[in-house]
Amino acid sequence: MTNSEFIKKIGNAAVKYYDKYKILPSLTIAQAILESNWGNSGLSKDCHNYFGMKWVEGCGCDYKEYSTREQRTNGIYYTVKARFRKYPNLEQGIKGYYDFLQYPRYKNLKGVTDYKEACKLIRLDGWATDLNYTNKLIKLIEVYKLHEYDNKVLKPKVKYYKKYNGKSVSLVDALKSLKIGSSMNNRKKIAKANGIKNYKGSATDNMKLLELLKKGKLIKG
Questions:
Q1: Residue 65: beta bridge partners?
Q2: Predicted confidence band at 167 (pLDDT cuts at 50, 70, 90)?
Q3: Burial (CB count within 10 angstroms: exposed 0-12, middle 13-18, buried 19+), residue 188
Q4: From CA 119, how far away is CA 80, in angstroms rounded?
Q5: Prediction pTM value
Q6: Pairing of strands 77-86, 62-71
Q7: What are the domain boundaries of the chain?
Q8: Of 65, 82, 162, 188, which residue is least crowded by CB atoms under 10 Å?
């Protein structure tokens, strides 16, 4: 698997799981790259563990023992043997990452929209002992433009002018007032972004979009 294929594989899964777990895809991808050496580490090849997650009794999966290097707060490195989680395939390995993040100490990551903040928090939460862990993640995100995957889930919502609250206005007029293209093609894009399939410009479809706009929930297509 090439580096670009690895990014795409992890990235697509991270986007898929975002709505449920609210973890930034860029953080997930960067961790997978760093922890698994682009999927080339023994742990990732043998155990489909791309994030260096350690095994504990009752975690629901098998394990394999490896030597691992840790870093003390004074910067000194040391090597220990530890049990790491083992998964049957790549898909289960990625899902295992999100299950692992359900430990209470990682709850502050949920909903964070700034990748730099997310990279800082996961280090402070105790994911890694590497004192330079945060900077390594940020560098990977910026060099490989992993934040582009964040853009797929952090879609901007359209702000609706309060002057229209309680007043009757058409979707087309509302979009025009916000300087958003109101052509049929553009409305189709907006409808698709908001989960409305087979948009045909009917009064019912337009009303659905207008109601989302009034509630501040309309996603710009």
A1: 83
A2: low
A3: middle
A4: 25
A5: 0.70
A6: antiparallel
A7: 3-153, 162-214
A8: 162
Give the model's confidence band at 82: pLDDT under 50 very low, under 70 low, under 90 confident, else very high: confident
Burial of 92 (0-12, 13-18, 19+ CB in 10 A): middle
d(CA 33, CA 18): 19
Asked if 47 and 93 count as a contact pair (C-beta separation under 8 A), the reply is yes
Longest pairwise C-alpha distance within the chain: 69
Residue 215 three-state SS: coil
Q: Would you state the pLDDT for residue 59?
A: 83
Residue 221 and residue 193 in contact, taking contact as beta carbons nearer than 8 Å: yes
Nearest to 143 by CA among 56, 34, 24: 34
* Residue range 3-153, CATH number: 1.10.530.10
Angle at 97 between CA 157 and CA 99, to 5 degrees: 85
**What is the CA angle 103-55-118, rounded to 5?**
40
At 21-65, the pLDDT tens digits run: 999 999 999 999 999 999 999 999 999 999 999 998 888 888 888
Contact 124, 162 (CB under 8 A): no
pLDDT in tens, 29-39: 999 999 999 99
- DSSP symbols for 8-67: HHHHHHHHHHHHHH---HHHHHHHHHHHHTTTTSHHHHHH---S-PBP-TTSSSEEEEEE
As given in the structure block, the two tokens for residue 61 are 């999966």
